[in-house]
Design brief:
- This protein has a single domain, classed as Vaccinia Virus protein VP39 (Rossmann fold).
- It has eleven helices and seven strands.
- A seven-stranded mixed beta sheet has the order 3-2-1-4-5-7-6.
- A hairpin with a 6-residue loop joins strand 6 and strand 7.
Length: 292
């Protein structure tokens, strides 16, 4: 993640009074092989997004208890679901996605890593018809809400989350927030263009354009009640997290798995991870344990 240039864009975002209109993504479900391949590659162990997946996996882990049943909405190729399942072998996960192409990749990903505590299902996150009322201990959704077509679909999704979540259950939702300036959107999409495919750069820009505003997200999350806490990256809502409070103290074994996962990142990924973590920490969102 670039430093001075990024800070300049964020400061301009902070000062801007503009409001950009949302541009929904042209394809709400990703089936195109080129799109899928670009998305999968950036999320693999050696990919550009691996550090963000680990960051969210650590945060989600603090919400989970032994025996929990966890629903991952729009799990895609399991790039995020995989590290969460690895860190929490005592929980059972259900990955849901509307794209059969993505789920095929997810099956391969999970089988390659010998993950046995995950099942996959085809479905629409706005209609969780295959899941009973109060059937889940935790619902997570990472970087997928912007795929929804409009605020009505966003509200339906949150209503369904409320229905399937047990009383006192855990929640972890994270997505982009909508920037105020098109130049900021272009900056973040193109910042690593020398390390990512043209297809991924285009998809990244479309995702930022399709992000819901903070107001739209707040209005939808309000359906879940007052116990959900919001965190966001300071200066501008590049990323916004809505989550429950931690449900357990991390034991020594889990913390050891966390440190091992961090150690497996490349040096460049570790640098990106700590820049990202410091950015969130400046907004009051700290890691659940130390990694050194």
């Amino acid at each position: 993640m670039s430093g001075p240039a990024m800070l300049a864009h964020l400061l301009l975002e902070r000062l801007s009074r503009r409001v950009l209109a949302r541009i929904p993504e042209p394809d709400l479900v990703m089936h195109d092989p080129a799109q899928v391949a670009a998305f999968v590659d950036c999320g693999r162990d050696a990919g550009l997004l691996a550090f963000t997946h680990l960051f969210h996996a650590l945060q989600i882990t603090a919400l989970l208890r032994p025996g929990d049943r966890v629903l991952d909405l729009a799990c895609g190729p399991a790039n995020q679901l995989l590290p969460v399942a690895q860190l929490n072998p005592f929980a059972h996960f259900v990955g849901l996605d509307a794209s059969t192409t993505m789920l095929d990749v997810a099956r391969t990903t999970l089988a390659h890593s010998a993950i046995g505590n995950v099942e996959l299902a085809t479905g629409d996150m706005t209609r969780l018809s295959g899941f009973g009322d109060a059937s889940m201990d935790c619902v997570m959704c990472t970087m997928s809400l912007h795929h929804l077509p409009d605020t009505r679909a966003l509200a339906r999704t949150l209503q369904e989350v409320r229905r399937v979540l047990k009383p006192g259950g855990a929640l972890y939702l994270v997505d982009f927030g909508r920037f105020k300036r098109t130049s900021t959107q272009r900056f973040f999409a193109h910042d690593r263009r020398d390390c990512q495919s043209a297809q991924f750069t285009q998809d990244y820009l479309q995702s930022l354009q399709a992000a819901f505003s903070i107001t739209e997200l707040n209005d939808a999350i309000a359906l879940l009640g007052p116990d959900v806490v919001r965190y966001q990256t300071p200066l501008a809502p590049f990323m916004v997290v809505f989550k429950s409070v931690a449900r357990r103290a991390l034991d020594a074994e889990t913390q050891c798995r966390m440190r091992q996962a961090h150690a497996r990142l490349t040096r460049a990924q570790q640098q990106d991870f700590h820049v990202f973590a410091r950015w969130f920490r400046a907004g009051g969102y700290a890691l659940p344990c130390t990694l050194s």
